[in-house]
Amino acid sequence: MSKRTGILLVVSGPSGSGKTTLCRRLADEQEARYSISCTTRAPRPGEVDGRDYHFLTQAQFVEKRTAGDFLESAEVHGNLYGTLKSEVTGLLERGTDVVMDLDVQGAAQVRACEDPEIRQAAVDLFVMPEDESELLTRLSGRGTDSEEVISLRMKNALEEISHWPLYTYRLLSRSQEEDYTRFKALVFAERLRVNRQINL
Is 17 annotated as a binding residue? Predict the structure, then answer.
């Protein structure tokens, strides 16, 4: 007999790629769990500590980061965000798959993690439109942004896309349904990998 360890599925991609939709749908269908991140920002109305985020003071966050407790961390708009290793490894040990929607810097931090459990569990995927014209269409689709804003978003997206060769898998985005079908196929295939099986 054997049981399976969980997969740590790290998903990156530029704005407009559809990566967040894929991750949320996988979690909504209970095929995987989002790990609960830590943040130093104040809770928004309706947010609950331990359910939406672990809300920490700046000092608490820095202490944990100094101790090496975070799998990945970043500063966004003046606030600190991070994912606790213990939050992820606890789920993986129970055979629960974890999905993380990370930028290329966060994904690089996960890749660099030397924790054996993380290294065995981690799989990374880069989601991107098939070509630049499709990317531009998606970025300008709302019709509310100025040309300058769209140009900046396009520049940032192309810089992110340049990192795709660092990933194990790449998904060229088409329709939402087709993307999700291929996304789930990747998850199911990874669940069958021999190195995820533990003899009891």
Answer: yes
Q: Is 85 annotated as a binding residue?
A: no
For residue range 132-161, what is the model confidence (pLDDT) as tens digits?
888 888 888 766 678 888 888 889 899 999
181 annotated among ligand-binding-site residues: no
In contact, 30 and 49? CB cutoff 8 Å: no
Distance (Å) of CA 62 to CA 35, 43, 171? 20, 19, 35
Share the mean pLDDT of the chain. Answer: 91
155 labeled binding residue: no
83 is in an annotated binding site: no
Q: Give the residue extent of every domain in the chain.
A: 2-193
| Residue 107 structure tokens | 């994904």
Homologous superfamily of 2-193: P-loop containing nucleotide triphosphate hydrolases (3.40.50.300)
Asked whether residue 1 carries a pLDDT value surpassing 50, the answer given is no
Q: Answer yes or no: is 168 a known binding residue.
A: no
